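Problem 3 from the worked examples.
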Amino acid sequence: MNTEEDLLARVALTWLAEPGTRSVHRLVGKLGPAATLDLLLDGGAPEEWLRAAVSARSREGDARAVAADALARTQRLGARIVTPDDEEEWPPRVEDLRRMVLPGGHRRVDRETAPPLCLWTRGGWPLREALDRSVAVVGARAATGYGMHVATELGYGLADRDWTVVSGGAFGIDAAAHRGALNAGGLTVAVLACGIDQPYPMGNAALFDRIAETGLLVSEWMPGAEPFRPRFLIRNRVIAAATLGTVLVEAAARSGATQTFNRALAVGRRPMVVPGPVTSAMSVGAHELLREQPSARLVTGVPHVLEEVGRIGADLAPPARAPQRPRDLLDDEATLVLESMPRRGAVDVDRLAARAGVDLRTALRKLSLLEELGMVRRRDDGYALVTHPAGAPGTSPARVSGSIADPPP
């Protein structure tokens, strides 16, 4: 259980050092939050850069006083702080960040990827329960109409099947996924790179209010914290680790969304990519990930996503099939008879059998079948094709399955 002193220390530590700092996380695990705070304030941080950061922050204010003010502000907001000591609320999957190693990680945000010390939440859902069956849907801020449509459909479909949709609350794909889930009456979680009382971007303020009413806003930063650029990458590791898989809908060649995808890969989550038009700059990054990452899975809708993250053997996506047409019911001989019919006029049975290369009895049997299927009709002068609206004998108009129209026979 949390003691008041430990809770205050965790909040103070998130202010002194940015979330994800590995040495701070290790010290908390070894010494406890309160003793770690004392050590850092006494200049005992193990790295020089961390000592400098603690010293700089300490000149700005007293860490414990700042933490006490953050706790009071959290209470006034009607929010709460969740820590690893809260077994009923803490999402256990984020602890996998202990073992996250990003290939070629030379920047601090790529190296300092430890689990959070605490999480601020705003909303009525227990955090652990909300994230238990969850999928991240991320992508470009400058999304195309195609990407927005796909993200909305994914958000709606996942929420409609009782899956939580997790994203970052940004413009574009993030917002579309959140709105899709809300429109389905489902649960969605926005993981922010600033305080939960700082709607960013401001244009999504109404969306954040809707999410807080029915889902959750989550952040590693105390109320009032600003959305500095590096914090978005720090935040992305939580989106990747807390969910069962990450779906990338659109991403340009340089995109923060691909960083979330790479973090999902590094922590062993299911990495999924929705393909886009090859002519779109917003699909370049997504397509490159499909080419470069053998474990990346191409998905085109909710059934594919659920096959990746759902129960083994129970959430298989149905194979893509074109709509069945009357011709699909024909065997080889019936097809030969049908193809041997003249496009115009009638033909007698003897001539038709010769044209089809079958005996007279077979021709009569197959003509009876074709007549029953409405493909031919008997006339006084023989048999004639029944012409359908599409202009092709014995077929129905081409229908669209997915995004590709069925080809003519």
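Problem 4, a separate protein:
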Amino acid sequence: MRADLLIYNISKIYTPIGTKPLCGEDMEKIEEIENAYIAIKDGKILAAGKSPAAISAEREIDAKGMIALPGFVDPHTHVMHYGSRENEMALKLKGYSYIDILKQGGGIHSTVRATREASDEALLQKALKSLEIMLSHGVTTVEVKSRYGLNTEQEIRLLRLMNQLKSLSVVDIVPTFLGAHAIPQEFEENPWGYVEKVINEMLPKVKEEDLAEFCDVFCEEGAFDYEQSKKILEEAKKLGFRLKIHADELTHSKGGELAGILGAISADHLEEVSDEGIELMKKAGTVAVLLPGVSFFLNRPYADARRLIERGLPVALGTDYNPGTSPTENLQLIMSFAYINMKMRAEEILTAVTLNAACAIDRGDEIGTIEEGKRADIVLIDAPNLDYMMYHFGINHVNTVIKAKGNDVVVIGIK
């Protein structure tokens, strides 16, 4: 057998198996292969198994006893923005909520202003810096939402820039349209007017230019209520978009119920989700994307991961990287939050940031596992086992990232 690249002397491969999201006890079913190798050809995994193997290769990597994991997938980010909001921390420390700050013209409105005023080049360079940090922490695929334009011209601009990122970054980019994240200040007295603008102007234009696969909406008090969210997502579905929803984050907005009713591919946040919402999402096959970085940063309760897993929902994890509520690109830190504060087990967490996260962006047949035929997105971790990686928190355990780009692979040494 002849490969392009052979990774050998791997102490252990840890990987979920399959192409569909795993739920319940299956989230812990991780295949472990000791004294292993991975062979890669034409950008895909040719074989993976126990060494030795009769394989020759043009290039070889000695893993030096490290463990190998599938490349991490971050299924919820807001990378494309400008500016930061550290100035709001004083208000938060005094007890002001996100909605309080939003009503004062801060929050997302300040980021919208900064983003609208930034040049295309400035936005691209800031996004590329964030993607480089994510890659260095083992993330090989990132979902990116628009969100900070909040008018037709700017939302289209941001989505076009996201698509430019695909050729500028080693990281794979999956764009999502989120024009319905907040009511812009110019529509505060006419929120339904903005809903109609999203439906009649933005969605058709995004579809016409094929700028995004998914349509998302922030269903929450102070943003878009249940009926407004339902109207936007129904119209998006008619145009052929897959659906996502920011659901039940700060209040029980019935976003979980709406995700299940409309068959959303993912419902994200879910700190306040109801039992009815869980059951409806379960029937629809919706992936629950939990974002513990937000709970940490806002000092709010974490989503009840154990409840969701035990009720049979597939759970994924993401950073929700954004300047207001989760200013971190470090998915490994998010994994530690899930381990320590959400009581998720190490194997569940691995599934949540690989296969289930891939399924939350409709990529489960391409990435998320180390299996023959999957894309060769692999990380070598300088840790003795999975639990150690999450227990020893706050540092970067990645030694090397192997990233498929077309029919080739890029090897990035981190340490």
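Solution to problem 4. The two ends are 30 Å apart (CA to CA). The CA atoms of residues 86 and 249 lie 22 Å apart.
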